[in-house]
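C2H2-type domain-containing protein
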Amino acid sequence: MTSQSSICCKLCFKAFTAYQKLLVHERNKHLYNKTIPHFYSLPQPSSEQTFYYINSFIVLIKKKLGFSRHAVGKKRFSIETFPENVFVYLFKNEEKFKYSPAKHKYQCCFEGFAGAARLKEIFRYDHWSFRQNLFTNTKGYVLLEDYENKYQVKFIWGQTTLSENDREFTLGKMTCNFITDSREFQEKYV
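Predicted structure tokens:
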């Protein structure tokens, strides 16, 4: 009799003989999972640590916002050493937050005007999504909704592991995907 090692779903404890089968099961049965089995081991980050990473996000997103036609379109940036606990405590209560235990990967999406408003609350900064060039009267901004469509800002956290010389090196990486646009603006006279 040959025994096969099994991989267990961390949510319902069903056993699988292959990692791919576990992924299919998770996608079919736990697609919008919010349960984090190891949540108790994630310490709540300090407010200083949280603000540090929020500020990092704001700086990096503003660097992607431009004023020309070349600055328009899909954008992406990553923070290579983003702590898991910061990501979880920032986004765990959001409607479109989900966690894949098999991949050890989180995702959270914000869409449309409601998503933009919610990100203002999370980041505690009303101007996170745009910057202006006063000399050219142009504005670069994160596009979340226009007269036809709604768009998303998607945050993904995943773990990267490097194995070398009988040692594993692990770090968390946060990636943000979004759409940018640019337009002229006019001064408002009071």
